[in-house]
Amino acid sequence: MNSPAFWIGYVILIFAFMYFIAIRPQQKEKKKMQELMASIAVGDSVLTSSGFYGVIIDMTDDTVIVEFGSNKNCRIPMQKQAIVQVEKPEA
Questions:
Q1: Which of 2, 39, 42, 54 is buried most, with the most CB atoms less than 10 Å from its CB?
Q2: Do 45 and 53 touch, CB atoms closer than 8 A?
Q3: Calpha distance 56→47 (Å, rounded)
């Protein structure tokens, strides 16, 4: 049980466990967020990280202008990373 092959196998097992428990899910989540950011378009209804619902009315590379409320006078520029959920308008 003290052979070097046992310890090498044990270390490989620990690293494989860490990869499948910590690293791989994080990479999947990052890819999902990148796809979400790429799919954002003007007219989409969005949920921000602060919990506000709004509609995108203008976009640049890393910022969006979101219109909040029913009076259509509250327009706030924010970073795309603040968007956590996107709902496409019904066609």
A1: 54
A2: yes
A3: 10
